[in-house]
Design brief:
Elements lengths: L4 H20 L16 H12 L9 E7 L1 E5 L14 E4 L8 H14 L8 E7 L1 H11 L11 H10 L4 H6 L2 E4 L3 E11 L6 H20 L9 E4 H35 L2 H24 L6 H27 L5 H29 L6 H32 L8 H19 L1
Antiparallel strand pairs: 1-6, 1-7, 2-3, 4-6, 5-6
Helix pairs in contact: 1-9, 1-12, 7-8, 8-9, 8-10, 9-10, 9-12, 10-11, 10-12, 11-12
Amino acid sequence: VGQGKYIVIIIFMVWLIMAITFTFQLTPPTETEKWIPDSHPLREGLNAIEKYFPKGANDNSQKIHLIWGIEGLDKSGIDDPWDPKDPGKVVWDKKFNPATAANQLRLKEICDLLKSDRYAEVVLDRNVHCFVDNFIDYLKKENLEYPVAESSFISHLSAFLKDDLGTDDRNLDSIGLEGDSTLRYIFFRVIGVGDRGPKSTLHPRWEKWEDITKDFNTNSLEGLNSAFQTSYWWTWYMTEVTLVKNAIQGVLIATGISFLILIVTTHNIILSSYAILCIIGIVTSVMAIVYFQGWDFGTPESIAVVILIGFSVDYVVHICHAYVESHHGSREDRTREALAKMAISIVGGAVTTFGDGCMLFFTTLFFFQKFAWIVTSTIVFALVWSLIFFPALLLAAGPQNDTGDLKVFARKMYKKYQETRARKS
């Protein structure tokens, strides 16, 4: 390694740039992740259901709900924000009032607009379910005109939901009546255009629906000007974004903590910086393997990318410690002594960890199979970076004697402070 140290460093730095490039090309999953292979009995059963019991035309389409009457969700006092059994308390919109004649007509107008050519690019085949259409048919059957009197609006809605014409809205729960006297919310359901896709596909669509909703609110009177739109696909897209965001945040935090630990254990800023460079190389190399495997940046990958920081720092920190503890002054002697002391132990630990990771290849769940790839490739890259690149870097530019030693630096600064204080006195 000593003779070809510069060649080794150049090769590894070129690979590092490539690995970083591959890492940034990873994208969140564009469809629901598979957890079991197609040959598994459960998967065969699910495939049979999809094959012999085909879904309707709209089952795989996006459903957007335009909702009035809900202001938000109060999560105060909740111990576990992730508990699905306790999502929080609904905050109702106190200004919500669709009962006025003007607002009743506005609801019909919005419904007709959604079915018009104006929104054909976002609404699939004018497929919009508005309760007002069935409600108007019900009123005609009862020889009543729309809009009805404000004082009798809720009572007519209640009677409509009990009628056969109100069956669809009763099943959809599109009218939120509490008892027979309080109307909490209403919503229209729209079948959207387009398939599920990554953020680059869904985000422009989300922005379009946000603009549509804002336009409806701007042109509506009080009582009907606080609508919002939602869709399961938005939550999925937000989840994908959060997976990547939290993974990056986790890597930054873990890397930062690793750097602090290296500073504490080695007391050398130069050595700690070199070690962090190795860790970045190991992590991005593993992510490059994920890219070459054709995987998306899904749940297993977002969890593993944080965990593998621990594997990455393990081997290099041993060499760092041995290098610092060496009684030699030159970088060449220190590097040789560090490798002589730690290389065998590092390889032995790597072999056992690698063997443990291989056991996961024989599991059924894809989650653990992916983990097997990630763990084993992490061990291989950690060995390569720690025992080839890191020693080459130390031989080329490793700190000698007291260079980079924070304890020596602190003593010098304290001595200088005392001298300055003595001169002033």
